[in-house]
Write a structure and sequence with these properties.
Keywords: Coiled coil. It comes from Stenotrophomonas nematodicola. Residues 10-72 form a coiled coil. This is TIGR02449 family protein. There is one protein chain. This protein has 73 residues and is mainly alpha-helical. Helix content is 95%, strand content 0%. It has one domain (1-73).
Length: 73
């Protein structure tokens, strides 16, 4: 193997390592972003479940009051 071939291979290897490092950085950032988005969605889901439970309780209370009024008439 000639020195120029070795240098060319080393440069190609270095370029590939650099590309892999850049890809790793992009994926790490994407991962952080997706985790943050997931945390927000979990929090939003929790809030929506709480609101749904409140609405369900109110509807059940209204039904109970309506049945009570119906029985008294």
């Amino acid at each position: 193997m000639e020195p120029s071939d070795a240098i060319t291979q080393l440069q190609a290897f270095a370029a590939r390592v650099e590309a892999l490092l850049e890809r790793n950085q992009r994926l790490a950032e994407e991962n952080r972003s997706l985790r943050h988005q997931q945390e927000q969605l979990v929090a939003e889901r929790s809030q929506l479940l709480a609101k749904n439970e409140q609405a369900r309780s109110r509807v059940e209370a209204m039904i109970t009051r309506l049945k009570s009024l119906e029985q008294h008439t």
